[in-house]
Amino acid sequence: MIVVIDERELVTEGYHSLFNREGVASAGFAPNEFGEWVQTVAEDELKAVSAFLLGQCEAGSLSAQSIRDRSPAPLIALSERNSLDDTLRLFEWGADDVVRKPVHIREILARITAIRRRALQDTANFTQLGVMRIYFDGRDPEIDGQPLPLPRRERRILEYLAGNPTRRVTKTQIFNAIYGIFDEDVEENVVESHISKLRKKLREKLGFDPIDSKRYLGYRLIDV
User: Fold this and answer.
1) pLDDT for 180-197, tens place per residue?
2) Are 188 and 171 in contact (CB under 8 A)?
3) Which ranges of the chain have pLDDT less than 50?
4) Where does this protein bind DNA (predicted)?
């Protein structure tokens, strides 16, 4: 999920629509609302955020450190002025990247992916479970070196499970990561459908089901 922060509701609603067309969950906040939310939101819900997108905010209304204290997700600032001083100010404020508007939504997504990829340079950007390799940069997983094409939602679920190797994750946690914690138009039970389809594809390729589930406890990947 991508969190958009802007004083103008029309802007946050516009980005929500654009991200939705790309199949990416998003949520919009005014700066004062966001400040309270980021301090109080549960850690498990915050883990669903893949990036923060900063638009127009009154000077001093938002602290980058308040975000950094709670989340390592990329922070991208949108600049509406072709000004070097403005760009440098945003970097000094704490932004990971500054993008001048207008900008295509796919460029924003590409920049987010690039920042996350760089953050993983010191560690592996994939996890290996037996013959299955699961990437964290948007690529399809591989089984015995061969790509296994997956729809976006199923791939994200597999990545999320792989990113939490030491604990079970609940249906709610998976839903928040894939659809966003504020999406009221989609039923949480859709996760079960996605996982069922994912399990079938993995079982056909691996010969076993690598997703272990326990009622009330959640899901985790197993290495057999």
Assistant:
1) 766 666 788 889 999 999
2) yes
3) none
4) 124-223
